Model the fold of this input.
Amino acid sequence: MAPHPATGKLSTLCPALQKEKPFQKQFGSENELAMESTLAKKDKIENDVVEEKPKETTVEFLASLAAVLVTGLFIITFVMQAFEIPSSSMENTLLIGDHVFVNRIQFAPKSSWAGPLLPYRDVRHGDIVVFLSPAEPGLYVVKRIIGTAGDHIHLRNGVVYRNGEELKEPYVVRPPDSIPNPYRDNFPAVPPSESYNVYPSWEQELPMHIQGDDIVVPPDHYFAMGDNRDVSLDSRFWGFIPKENVIGRPMFIYWSFETPGDQYRKTALGDRVGFLAHVIIHFFDETRWRRTLRVVQ
Done:
């Protein structure tokens, strides 16, 4: 039986249709890939736009720099300040070349709004303090507080008596080859004079504060001496420390470098540049690493 014409026609068309199907499938795949590629590029562009940070303007940079400088200035003015120990008067507690951070808040006058929040306290016996010298304006000095307001103090053969009691001072250094000084070791029994390196103003004022064998510390003042007792130029030689002259209390040593005893007197530019070069060259071998972060007490 012969095939139906229509059937024959369908049979001749089927191969063509079968050939078109793979082409359509391939064309669809290429479109999908193109769309995916376009979407991926679009996402990348959007991500780049999101991730790209706006450049800081000159004004913004200067504002940030000013904020940092103001914060640093506030800290070194009101919170803490770095000082270098220039002399041997506090050895062996503090050595020449010790660099310390000083707490400026602790002994500051209490403020009404921040008083309960900050660790204010009065200066006590035995505190080590940095202060402005009453004898040489602008000179920063560090000593240990021996007497506060109302204390009666005298020395006999180098031993300190406060309110009639001998002080136990394990921190005191007395070199065996020290030159005897009657005024220094028997204060205030021996009258002061310029031959003992006593400041003229203190030579005149000292008799007004003597009661019996003692010197009496007036209100709002302190009597201080160095731990290296025989070389220290202290309250025995220039008088009391006014309360308003106290800067703060040394907290810890952040760096210590072997420094000549007379380095602080060399103020010429050439001397300073020369010592700076010496520090750079010998930073590692002349830094006292064992003293780093040592608490001052």
